[in-house]
Amino acid sequence: MAVVRSSISAPVDNIWGDVRAKIEFDETRFGPQSLTGLSDFSHVEVIFLLDRVPEETVETGARHPRGRSDWPLTGIFAQRGRNRPNRIGATVCRLLNVENLTVTVEGLDAIDGTPVLDLKPYLREFGPRGEVRQPLWATELMSRYWSRK
Predict the structure, then answer these.
(1) Of 18, 23, 103, 149, which has the fewest CB atoms closer than 10 Å, so is most exposed?
(2) What pLDDT tens digit does each residue of the chain (149 aa) get?
(3) Could you give the CA distance from residue 122 to residue 136 in angstroms, rounded to a whole number?
(4) Nearest to 57 by CA among 85, 78, 83
(5) Cα 125 from chain centroid?
């Protein structure tokens, strides 16, 4: 459907917040009208395929997030690591520009060449309803995910 174009060419664990990427749609399948109205939104959700995750590294059980033994043993479906059984990633990104068949976003944690499976406008009504809770290890893990600090 589309492919990511980014300056990041290898998986990294942090720094994604100010990374700008382009999502280039397949011109043999789509015309510019498929993106009409998208620029009215501030954010999009990008669904992508983690196609460079080697089969032998896919996790189906539990592990310590990021290999840190000071964090609890946690099932793969209770974390957002890239070594997922289905290899599907999803990220809400800031929408910067829509031009022809190219969508420019900020904060997409997908590397150059990553296949995009779907792109959806982000509507606040699809965000959390009620209080959001998460364990302390998750807060610690994400504390530097979006910034270089």
Answers:
(1) 149
(2) 999 999 888 776 657 667 899 999 999 999 999 999 999 999 999 999 999 999 999 999 999 988 889 999 999 999 888 888 999 999 999 999 999 999 999 999 899 999 999 999 999 999 989 999 999 988 888 777 667 55
(3) 27
(4) 83
(5) 20
- The answer to the question of residue 147 being in a domain is no
Question: What does DSSP assign to residue 143?
Answer: T
Q: Is residue 29 part of a domain?
A: yes
Domain presence at residue 149? no
In a domain, 148, yes or no: no
- Predicted TM-score (pTM) above 0.85: yes
Provide CB contacts within 8 A for 54, sequence distance 6+.
none
Distances from the Cα of 91 to the Cα of 44, 47, 86, 94, angstroms: 8, 7, 15, 10
Q: Which domain holds residue 113?
A: 2-142
CB 78 within 8 A of CB 1: no
Q: Are 57 and 67 in contact (CB under 8 A)?
A: no
CATH number at residue 77: 2.40.30.70
